[in-house]
Amino acid sequence: MLFQSLFSAILLVLSYTTINACTNFLITKGASADGSCMITYAADSHVLYGELYFWPAADYAEGSMLDVYEWDTGK
Question: pTM here?
Fold first, then answer.
């Protein structure tokens, strides 16, 4: 029994990897209040898409535009 427990613990430690999972919610019609089926997916892995940043509010001149760049290509 001790050998099996030790072997299982070692196997668990050696098989540990970082998990880059995304958040998913699947709601069936029986679980929702109005009978709707819902699926949501959030690609919230900080390794894949980077971190969230906070930019404080600012006043901009009327009609001014802000450049928005794609995270992976910089375009």
Answer: 0.36
Output the six-digit token pair for 5.
């427990």
Q: Which of 56, 23, 55, 58 is CA-nearest to residue 41?
A: 23
Query: Of all helices (H) and strands (E), which one includes residue 4?
Result: helix 2-14
Instruction: Using the predicted structure, report yes or no on whether residue 44 has a pLDDT greater than 80.
Output: no
Question: By C-alpha distance, which of 23, 19, 53, 57 is closest to 40?
Answer: 23
Residues 19 and 48: their CA atoms lie apart, in Å, by 11
DSSP string, 5-71: HHHHHHHHHHT-------EEEEE-TTTSTTS--EEEEE---HHHH------------TT-------T
